[in-house]
Amino acid sequence: MFRQLQHIDSAFRHIRSFSLVFLVACTAVSCFALYHSYRQVQMAQERIYILAGGKALEAFSADRKENIPVEARDHVRSFHAYFFTLDPDEKVIEANIGKALYLADGSAKRAYDNLRESGYFSGLIAANVSQEITVDSVRLDTGRYPYPFRCYARQRLIRASSVVTRSLVTEGVLRSVSRSDNNPHGFLIERWATLENRDLSSKSR
């Protein structure tokens, strides 16, 4: 009788031990499966497919912090390209300046108003002068916020008789704002000022 009870007790302990091991194994497999599924979903969400020329190109998303230097420099380049690329056409000037003013605060608007009041734009139109800009480099300090920058560029004033090349150096700070169609990088230029704008050379056409 006691031997049977011992066998029953031993069998119960074995079954209990087996059940505990089985439960732990099932829990571990379930946790691994959940983690693996979460990682797969996360990786799938990071993939972006871009349709270009009838072909689907795969791209990967990244955190904004990783792209701040690239996006900030391109924002500065875009602003200067809009603000300083001008043709002797009032509508073209207004369209380009309008795009530029979406990327900067009132300091750029004041610079535009000063140029307009001084007759700079009407002079371009009257003399059929086109203005182009090439940004050589943008120095950016991402260790401070708002991000200070300094832009080095060259201007070309194309007249009927000559082409004047000028040196342009500006500075300001970049503040993060919401992205939009008019401001795709999500930055706003503040305290924008021109440090240098002098003639480098003049060539006859």
UniProtKB/TrEMBL annotation:
<keyword id="KW-1133">Transmembrane helix</keyword>
<keyword id="KW-0472">Membrane</keyword>
<feature type="transmembrane region" description="Helical">
    <location>
        <begin position="20"/>
        <end position="38"/>
    </location>
</feature>
<protein>
    <submittedName>
        <fullName>Bacteroides conjugative transposon TraK protein</fullName>
    </submittedName>
</protein>
<keyword id="KW-0812">Transmembrane</keyword>
<dbReference type="InterPro" id="IPR022276">
    <property type="entry name" value="Conjug_transposon_TraK"/>
</dbReference>
